[in-house]
Amino acid sequence: MSGPSITELTTRARDIFQRVVEEYLEWGQPVGSKTLASDGTLNLSPASIRSVLAELEGLGFLAAPHTSAGRMPTDAGLRIFVDGMMRVSEPSREERAQIEARIAESGPVEQALQRTSALLSELSGAAGMVMVPTREQRLAQFSLVDLGEGRALTVLVGEDGGVENRFVELGSSQTASLEAASNYINARLAGRTLAEASQAMRSEIKAGESQLDAASRDLVERGLAVWSEDANQRPVLIVRGASNLIDEAAMDDIDRVRSLLDDLEDKQSVAALLESARESEATRIFIGSENRLFGLSGSSVIASPYRDMEGRVVGVLGVIGPTRLNYARVVPMVDLTARSLSRSLGKLIA
């Protein structure tokens, strides 16, 4: 049988509960009756407030640490607050501009994801996380551009509209083969994944069906190898700002911090948690013991999926921090960042 909802409480109890949660999220410390009575907004005596605090504790919404006379919200209390009482604080115009500008910077998709993770960390004061797309890129167009001095630029355009560049070294006789290599890939390998393209090319060469000369074949093979190697080396998860999790308040519970940092090292498990947010239409919030992975460390995760140009979910980004995260500020920030990355994903160039 489920417990009471916050709407079943008296107006006095709801007001006091909201004040406790907001004070705790701002300062990270248990909140006592004297603090709540001091500014006069509740118009209640400390004794009356203590009575209501005891009631809220009995319902499981608040807890009283043994080292303090104050109360702090439980995970269940935070869930009730987030779902039904939180007053969202939309990002400021300056924050919006900062998010848009950072994501729109030129560079490969990998760099954009790293910048996004770092940006989330900076804006939230916690750790930023971005799950890298696992879907293999399919070729739409491939070009080799002579840069002179023995170097060429390989430009790959994916079917999802993504554009990425890499450099490849040229042999002394290969400059004249750039156009032939590009035409071959575009004519014969478009629509395939990188692995499929490499296999098809090797099969044609082995069967003697390729019309490319040796210099062009080498360029095609090395050009595709750059992308295959890059895809294989991409991490499942990019985490930035883990040091933000070790603040003054956290040092009072070093075991919790150590547990959290150990959890973050297990990137496959963290990615699995984020994966559960892929099908969400809105930003998801995992609070403390609600998720097994971060239950022991008492941490919360705010996550939102991001999409490619076709509207398909390709990854998830988010923030992890202590349960006293500023949810009202961080939730809309994560949502805005996901939408901004989705809009820009197909426009990123090196």
Feature tags:
single chain, 350 residues, alpha+beta, five-stranded antiparallel beta sheet, three-stranded antiparallel beta sheet, 10 strands
Q: Uncertain runs with pLDDT below 50, 5 residues or more? A: none
| First-to-last CA distance | 56 Å
- The coarse overall form would be elongated
Q: Bin the strand percentage.
A: 15-25%
Radius of gyration: 26 Å
Number of H- or I-type helical stretches = 13
Largest sheet: 5 strands, antiparallel
Please describe what this structure looks like.
The relative contact order is 0.14. The model has no long low-confidence stretch (mean pLDDT 80). Strand 5 and strand 6 form a beta hairpin. The longest helix has 20 residues. This protein has a five-stranded antiparallel sheet with strand order 7-3-10-9-8. The protein has a three-stranded antiparallel sheet with strand order 4-5-6. Helix 5 packs antiparallel against helix 6 and helix 5 packs parallel to helix 13. With 350 residues, the chain is an alpha+beta fold. It contains 13 helices and ten strands.
